[in-house]
Amino acid sequence: MHEPEVSTLLDELSRGSREALDRLIPIVYEELRRIAHGQLGHERPGHTLNTTALVNETYLRLVNVDRVKWNGRAHFLAVAARVMRRVLIDYARARGRDKRGGDAVRVSLSDAAELLAAEGGAEDMAELEEALARLEAMNERQCRVVECRCFAGLSVEETAEALGTSPATVKRDWAFSRAWLNRELGRRTAG
């Protein structure tokens, strides 16, 4: 709908125009809200951050992102989803939650992308973040695929566009990453 305008604004943003972000956000705001709503849906009941607050915090962090070559709307949304995940992790840490505390922030990737098995899947945000960091250390692209598919809710094709790769590569990375994370998180909860 606004794709030519979004592309132009992303080009301006890549060149350092802060005003471009201010003009871009209203165009993609509903998509950002959808992503934020999805991420908050995996949090514990009664979470004090709401969708609007998460989008606003994401905006504040994106304002400080410099020198990114934006590769289209899907890339921007994937990065925004990653920033949202970081906001939620930082929020959980700031609240002083124990890694396995009773009121720990929870994320259920099995609901979002069938990432974890329904029974006994690790859902703790800190464990998930640690597992994703290990995956990223092994293969950054596979980690980005998880972020795009799970946290941004992007399709295989949108993920391929965001990452500059083929849909077939995304499908392979997604299958591997789901299995690897399922094993890693299952092992951490079993031990």
Question: What's a quick, concise take on this entry?
Answer:
This protein has helices at residues 3-14, 18-40, 51-63, 73-94, 109-113, 125-138, 140-151, 156-163, 167-190. The chain has 191 residues and is mainly alpha-helical.
What does this protein structure show overall?
The chain has 191 residues and is mainly α. The chain has one domain (3-190). It contains nine helices and no strands. It has helices spanning 3-14, 18-40, 51-63, 73-94, 109-113, 125-138, 140-151, 156-163, 167-190. The longest helix has 24 residues, at 167-190. The model is unreliable at 97-123 (pLDDT under 50).
**Tertiary shape:** globular
Total beta strand runs? 0
Strand content: under 5%
Question: Helical region count?
Answer: 9
Structural class of the helices, strands and pairings? mainly alpha
Task: Encode the helix/strand succession as letters.
Answer: HHHHHHHHH
Uncertain runs with pLDDT below 50, 5 residues or more? 97-123
Computed over alpha carbons, the radius of gyration is 17 Å
The percent range for helix content is 55-70%
